[in-house]
Amino acid sequence: MLEHRFRYLQPIVTCFIDFAFDSFDRKAPWRVMECDSVPEKIIRLIKAFYELTSAQICVYGETGRLLQNKNWCPSRLRPFSYNIRLCDRLGNTACRHSRDIQISPEHRIRDLEYANDVVLFVDSYDEMQVMPNNVSETAAKIGLRVNVCKTKVFSFMHEN
């Protein structure tokens, strides 16, 4: 998409948002699943699976001590459960005032989400001033915090 915008001299401003998954409410993913109508039985099953998980590391035939999973929210589940809720809220609230970027005559896009990554697209700096703040506020409502140091902005503006 960036190549297309560059080739046709169309302006684009992108913001690659990084979320701080290392400092979040450990119980929030379960609440997110409840809000998304995941059956309680499935939530209990996932919790039980991760609560009862332990590991041992074997190096050169020597087995280390048993490591218990004290962080009972699985790290792989965090981005997944948050991304579902965040995608829903981004579309409904955080990005509702921005215009979509046209990527073909029939298709427009405003953001992409994959795993724990979010990329925002706009065609002006003014719009990009507002969107990351809206995303940050929206994410905070579901227990996420934007890692400002790792969030990056990229832009291409053709000068006449």
TrEMBL record:
The protein depicted here goes by the name: Reverse transcriptase domain-containing protein
Q: Which organism is it from?
A: Dracunculus medinensis (Guinea worm)
Q: Which PANTHER family match?
A: REVERSE TRANSCRIPTASE DOMAIN-CONTAINING PROTEIN (PTHR47027), REVERSE TRANSCRIPTASE-LIKE PROTEIN WITH RNA-DIRECTED DNA POLYMERASE DOMAIN (PTHR47027:SF20)
